[in-house]
Write a structure and sequence with these properties.
The complex is a heterodimer of chains A (341) and B (634). Chain A has two domains: 223 residues, Rossmann fold (3-Layer(aba) Sandwich); 103 residues, Beta Barrel (OB fold (Dihydrolipoamide Acetyltransferase, E2P)), CATH 2.40.50. Chain A has 341 residues and is an alpha+beta fold. Chain A has eight helices and 19 strands. With 634 residues, chain B is an all-alpha fold. In chain B, strands 1-2 form a two-stranded antiparallel sheet. Classes of the chains: A alpha+beta (341), B mainly alpha (634). Chains A and B meet through strand 6, helix 2, helix 3, helix 4 and helix 5 of A and helix 9, helix 10 and helix 14 of B.
Chain lengths: 341, 634
C-alpha cells in the first residue's frame, strides 16, 4: 500500500478544463472519498490516478515515486468500475485469476490467491459461474475480488455501489470498509452519494467544477464547511440559506443554518429568531420537518413534536448562535464571525 | 338511473376474449398481405422449380418428361458438378476469410475516435453500396490484359515487365474474383463487427489494461471473445453471399477461362439459360439452395439455444444469498512481490508508434476503398483514345465530358445503339426503384408492426422465420421459375414483372427491418393510444408511424438501393430496352460483338454508382441501420 501525492494536476479535453491545478495528499492506508455532483471531475481525477487518462500538467507520486509518466500497467493499481467490467466469457475464477496470469505468477500461487480472495468475499460456491449467471451484488464482489487479488498499492473504486439496490448498498459498504481495515489498503472511492462518503471515509474531498472545495474528515466537512457549496452539498435536507440581513447581520452575507439546528422557539434566549407562516408539516418518523415562510424565504426547520402546529398559523423559530454559518454572498467563501450581534 | 350489470354477460365476454387469445384480428390482418404475396411469389415458384428439377424438358418440342430424381442423379454423377462444387468451396473459403479479416481491421480502425472518421466510414461503405455490375466492370478493367489499370499502374511505375493478362490464368482468375468479392463484402462484415465493438463496454478494456494485458493480448482475450457470436453470424451470412455470387462472375469471367471460375451458381445458370436444360439447372440450383439452408440451420441450431441461455432472468436470484456469512479463514493472502512489467518501449514512444501504425492502417483502408472508385471516375472522364494506349497509363491525357455527352445526349451520328439506351434505362431503374420501395415498405411497415408486437406467438414467430429463410434462397433458384411462369403469363419484359420479382427479395427485408424498428418503440405507446381512444389502425397511423419515421426512411433507402443495383432478375426477365435497367444496359456493352465501347461504358457505370455513393455519404446513418437490421444484402 502506498501514499499518494498529487501536485498541480491539470486536465483538459480540447478547450474545456476538467481539473484545474489540483493538489491532494493521501496517506498510506487511508480511505478517501471523492464526492461531488456529476461533471465535477471526480471520475476523471480517478482515471488520471489510474493512468487511463493522460494529464496535461502536474505530477502524481506514489510513496514519493514519480509515476506520472508510467502507463497504467506499471502503476500497480486496481480499479473497481461502476459497471464492474467483468470479462463476460470468463468464469468468476477466470476473472479473478486474470491479473495474476498477466503478471506471469506461477499457477500454484494463483490458485492460493484466488482461493483467498474468494473466501474473503464469500465467492467460493460461485467460482465456476459466468458473470451473466450472477446477481448484481455477486458481480460487485467478483469485481472487488479481481481488484484485491494482486495486492495493488492503491485500490480505486468508481461509484462501485451505484448499480445496487438500496439495502444491498448499505450492506456492501460495510463490507468494503471491513475489507479496507483488514487489508490496510489505501482506497480512493468516487461517489455522488454523500451518505456513502460520510460513512466510509477517513477524509472526503468535496469537488466541484474541477476544484477540490474541501478536503477534510467527514464531520469537519459537515460542521465546518469551507464554503457555500460544501455547506449546501453535504447534509440532507439541505442547509437553509437566507440573506443575513433578515436577522440583523451584514447584508452582503448569506446566513446558513441546518434544518436540524432550527426548531420552534419555546422561550427567548441566545441565538436568532425567525417568525413566519407555517406552510407545511412533513412527518418523517422520528423527526418532523416544518416548512416556514419567513419574509418570502422558505425555511426548513425540525421539531420532535408537531402537535398543536397548524399550517397557516404564525410560528417563531430559533437557531442557536453556534449553529450559524456565514458566507460571502458573491464568492460563497466562508466568513468566520463571533456569535453575537 | 341505476346501472345493472348482468354477471353472466360479463363473464361470457371475458370468456370470449380468452378464447380468442390476446391477439386482435388487426394483428393477423397486418401480416396477411405479406403472407399471401410471399406464398404466391416465392412459395409457388419454389414448388414449381422443385417440380422442374424432377422433369426433363425438350426446348424444341416443349415436351415434359417426369424423371423423378433423375436430374439429381445426373448432376451428382457429372464431373463438372464436383469440379464446380470444389471451386465453390475454395472461392467461399478465400472470400469469406478475407472479408472477415479485412472487415475486422476496418472495424477496429473505425471504432477509434479520430478526425475524418465520418468520411472514412462513408468511403469504406462505397464498395458495398455499389452495384455488383459496376464492381465487375471496374475490376475487369483493372485486371484487363492490354490496357488494364493494373498494367497501366505497373507501366507508370516502370514495372511494365510485370504486366500480364491478369484474368488469363485460370487459378489466378478464381483468386482475383475472390479478391473482388472481398472488396465488395468486407464493408458489410466491418459494419456488423463495428456494431459489436460499439456495444462492448469501454471499461472492459480499461480493466484489462489495469490487469496488465497489452494491446495484442487484449485483442485475443477480450475483443475476440466478445465478437464471437457476431463473427459466427457474419461467417454464415458471408458464406451464403459468396455461394450466391453471380453478377461479378457474369461481368468479369463468365466462368472462364475454360471452366476455371465456374462455381455452382454459374453452372446452374449455364445449364438453365444457356443450354436450356431447365430440369438439370433446377437440380443444380436446388443443391445450392440446400447448401445455403444447411448453413442457416447450423446457425440457428447452434446459436439460438445459447442465446436463450444467455439471458438469465435476474429475478430468479433469491434475496437470501446476498447475506454475508462470517468469514472462516482457511486461506491466507499471498503477498506478491511488486510487479515490474518489462518496459521495452517508453510509454510516450509507444503511443507515438501506435498512432503512426494507426494512421498508416487508416490510410491503406482509405486507398483500398476509394482508389478503384476514383480510377473509375477518372477513366470515365478520359478521352476514348486514352483507354487503348500502348503502353497503358493511369494518367489521362486530358479530362473531357465527351463520354457523358454521348450517353446522355444521344445524337444520331456518333452515339452507338447501346449508349442510346442509357437514359431510358436510368429512368427505368429510377421508376422501378421508387415503386418497389414504396410498395414494399408500406406492406413491410404493416407486417413489421404485427411481427414486433405479437412475435412471441407461435404463428407469428414461425412466419417470421419462414420469411428469413427465404433470404437464404439464392436468387438464381427463383429466377428460373419466374422466367418460365412469367413467359406464360406475359409478364416477361414488363415493369410489373420486375416489380413482382424484386418484391420477392424486398418484402422479407422490409418487414424484418420494420420489425426491428418497432421493437425499439415501447409498447406503452400503443397502450396509451388505445386508452386515449384510438382504433388499432389509427394508433398505427397517428402515433406509431410518426415515431418510426427514421426507420421507414432507412427501409425506403435500402430497398431502393437493392432494387437499383439488382442485375440477375433484370437481365433474365427483360428483353428490350424499354424495360431494361441500368445494370442490364451496362452489361449489354460487354455483349457487343466487335469491341468494348469503353468510354460510354464507364460513363454509364459512374452514373449507376451515383445514387449508392450519394447514399453512402449523405444517408449513411440510414444505410448502416438498413445493413444491420437486414444484414442480408447479396
Amino acid at each position: 500500500m502506498a501514499s499518494i501525492t498529487i501536485a498541480g494536476l491539470r486536465k483538459s479535453y480540447r478547450n474545456t478544463e476538467i481539473l484545474k491545478s489540483l493538489d491532494l495528499s493521501i496517506k498510506d492506508g487511508e480511505f478517501i472519498s471523492f464526492l461531488g455532483p456529476s461533471g465535477c471531475g471526480k471520475s476523471t481525477l480517478l482515471f488520471c490516478i489510474a493512468g487511463l487518462e493522460e494529464i496535461n500538467d502536474g505530477s502524481i507520486r506514489f510513496d514519493n515515486r514519480e509515476i506520472t509518466e508510467l502507463g497504467p500497467r506499471e502503476r500497480n493499481i486496481a480499479l473497481v468500475f461502476q459497471d464492474y467490467a467483468l470479462y463476460p466469457h470468463m468464469t468468476v475464477r477466470g476473472n479473478i485469476a486474470f491479473p495474476l496470469q498477466q503478471q506471469k505468477v506461477d499457477q500454484q500461487t494463483i490458485n492460493k490467491q484466488v482461493a483467498w480472495a474468494a473466501e474473503t468475499l464469500g465467492l467460493e460456491s460461485l467460482l465456476d459461474r459466468l458473470p451473466s449467471d450472477l446477481s448484481g451484488g455477486q458481480r460487485q464482489r467478483v469485481a472487488v475480488g479481481r481488484a484485491i487479488v494482486r495486492n495493488p498499492s492503491v485500490l480505486l473504486m468508481d461509484e462501485p455501489l451505484s448499480n445496487l439496490d438500496a439495502s444491498l448498498r448499505v450492506r456492501m459498504r460495510t463490507e468494503i470498509r471491513r475489507l479496507q481495515r483488514e487489508l490496510k489498503m489505501t482506497v480512493i472511492f468516487v461517489t455522488h452519494d454523500q451518505e456513502e462518503a460520510m460513512v466510509l471515509s477517513d477524509r472526503i474531498a468535496v469537488m466541484k467544477d474541477g476544484i477540490v472545495q474541501q478536503f477534510a474528515a467527514p464531520m469537519t466537512v459537515y460542521t465546518d464547511p469551507a464554503n457555500h457549496f460544501v455547506a449546501g452539498f453535504i447534509g440532507s435536507p439541505q442547509m437553509n440559506f437566507l440573506p443575513a440581513g433578515l436577522s440583523g447581520y451584514n447584508n452582503d452575507l448569506v446566513l446558513g443554518v441546518r434544518p436540524h439546528d432550527i426548531n420552534p422557539a419555546k422561550a427567548a434566549g441566545d441565538g436568532v429568531h425567525f417568525t413566519g407562516e407555517l406552510a407545511f408539516v412533513e412527518s418523517a418518523g422520528p423527526v418532523h420537518f416544518l416548512d416556514v415562510m419567513v419574509g418570502g424565504h422558505l425555511v426548513k426547520a425540525t421539531c420532535s413534536d408537531p402537535s398543536g402546529l397548524e399550517p397557516g398559523s404564525q410560528i417563531t423559530l430559533k437557531a442557536p448562535g453556534h449553529a450559524l454559518r456565514f458566507f460571502k454572498s458573491g464568492s460563497g467563501a466562508r466568513v468566520h464571525m463571533s456569535s453575537q450581534h | 338511473m341505476t346501472i345493472t350489470i348482468n354477471p353472466a354477460i360479463v363473464s361470457a365476454r371475458v370468456a370470449k376474449r380468452h378464447k380468442n387469445g390476446r391477439t386482435p384480428v388487426f394483428a393477423y390482418l397486418s401480416i396477411a398481405p405479406i403472407i399471401a404475396i410471399m406464398i404466391s411469389i416465392v412459395g409457388l415458384p419454389l414448388l414449381y422449380s422443385l417440380f422442374l428439377s424432377l422433369n426433363t424438358t425438350n426446348p424444341i418440342t416443349k415436351r415434359w418428361v417426369f424423371v423423378g430424381l433423375g436430374n439429381y442423379t445426373k448432376v451428382f454423377q457429372s464431373a463438372d458438378f464436383w469440379a464446380a462444387l470444389g471451386r465453390t468451396v475454395y472461392f467461399s473459403a478465400v472470400s469469406v476469410s478475407g472479408a472477415i479479416i479485412l472487415g475486422t481491421v476496418i472495424a477496429l480502425v473505425l471504432n477509434e475516435k479520430f478526425a475524418g472518421r465520418g468520411v472514412l466510414r462513408s468511403v469504406v461503405l462505397v464498395p458495398w453500396a455499389m452495384a455488383p455490375v459496376s464492381i465487375g466492370v471496374l475490376w475487369s478493367f483493372v485486371y484487363a490484359g492490354n490496357f488494364g489499370l493494373l498494367n497501366g499502374l505497373l507501366h507508370d511505375l516502370g514495372l511494365g515487365f510485370f504486366a500480364t493478362a491478369w484474368l488469363g490464368d485460370g487459378f489466378r482468375a478464381l483468386n482475383l474474383i475472390a479478391l473482388t468479392q472481398i472488396w465488395n463484402q468486407a464493408p458489410l462484415t466491418s459494419l456488423m463487427l463495428l456494431s459489436g465493438l460499439q456495444s462492448m463496454p469501454a471499461n472492459l478494456h480499461r480493466a484489462a489494461i489495469l490487469d496488465g494485458a497489452g494491446p495484442i493480448r487484449r485483442f485475443f482475450s477480450i475483443t475476440l471473445p466478445w465478437l464471437k457470436p457476431s463473427l459466427f453470424f457474419i461467417t454464415i451470412v458471408a458464406t451464403i453471399n459468396s455461394l450466391m455470387t453471380f453478377d461479378i462472375l457474369w461481368i468479369m469471367t463468365r466462368g472462364g477461362p475454360g471452366a476455371a471460375t465456374t462455381v455452382l451458381s454459374w453452372l446452374g445458370y449455364l445449364q438453365s439459360f444457356q443450354f436450356l436444360r431447365f430440369g438439370e439447372g433446377a437440380a443444380t440450383l436446388y443443391v445450392l439452395t440446400a447448401l445455403s439452408l444447411l448453413l442457416a440451420i447450423i446457425y440457428f441450431v447452434i446459436l439460438s439455444p445459447n442465446r436463450r441461455h444467455r439471458t438469465v432472468d435476474q429475478s430468479t436470484f433469491s434475496q437470501t444469498e446476498e447475506t454475508l456469512r462470517p468469514v472462516v479463514r482457511r486461506h491466507d493472502m499471498v503477498r506478491l512481490p511488486a510487479w515490474k512489467p518489462r518496459q521495452r518501449i517508453h510509454p510516450a514512444n509507444a503511443r507515438r508508434y501506435g498512432r503512426m501504425l494507426f494512421g498508416m492502417t487508416a490510410s491503406i483502408i482509405f486507398l483500398w476503398s476509394a482508389l478503384p472508385v476514383i480510377a473509375l471516375i477518372l477513366i470515365s472522364l478520359s478521352p476514348a483514345g486514352d483507354l487503348i494506349r500502348t503502353p497503358p497509363s493511369l494518367i489521362p491525357s486530358r479530362l473531357t465530358f465527351d463520354n457523358y455527352v454521348s450517353v446522355l445526349m444521344a445524337d444520331s451520328g456518333s452515339t452507338s445503339v447501346q449508349a442510346k439506351r442509357v437514359p431510358v434505362s436510368l429512368l427505368n431503374s429510377l421508376s422501378i426503384g421508387i415503386v418497389v420501395s414504396l410498395v414494399n415498405v408500406a406492406l413491410g411497415t404493416l407486417a413489421g408492426y404485427g411481427f414486433s408486437r405479437y412475435g412471441q406467438q407461435r404463428f407469428f414467430s414461425g412466419t417470421l422465420w419462414a420469411l428469413l429463410i427465404t433470404r437464404m434462397i439464392p436468387a438464381l433458384t427463383l429466377v428460373l421459375p419466374f422466367f418460365i411462369l412469367f413467359r406464360s403469363l406475359g409478364l416477361i419484359d414488363t415493369h410489373v414483372g420486375l416489380i413482382i420479382a424484386y418484391s420477392s427479395i424486398l418484402l422479407p427485408l422490409s418487414s424484418w427491418m420494420m420489425k426491428t424498428t418497432f421493437d425499439n418503440v415501447p409498447i406503452s405507446l400503443d397502450r396509451a393510444a388505445i386508452v386515449d381512444g384510438c382504433t388499432r389502425f389509427s394508433m398505427l397511423r397517428k402515433v406509431l408511424i410518426p415515431v418510426v419515421r427514421p426507420g421507414i426512411i432507412a427501409a425506403l433507402i435500402f430497398c431502393f438501393l437493392v432494387s437499383w443495383n439488382e442485375f440477375l432478375f433484370a437481365m433474365i426477365l427483360t428483353s428490350t430496352p424499354k424495360t431494361q435497367t441500368i445494370p442490364v444496359v451496362i452489361a449489354g456493352f460487354l455483349n457487343q460483338a466487335r469491341f468494348y465501347e469503353y468510354g460510354p461504358l464507364f460513363a454509364a457505370s459512374v452514373l449507376a454508382i451515383l445514387p449508392p455513393v450519394a447514399i453512402a455519404f449523405f444517408f449513411q446513418r440510414y444505410l448502416v441501420q438498413g445493413a444491420l437490421s437486414g444484414a442480408v444484402k447479396g
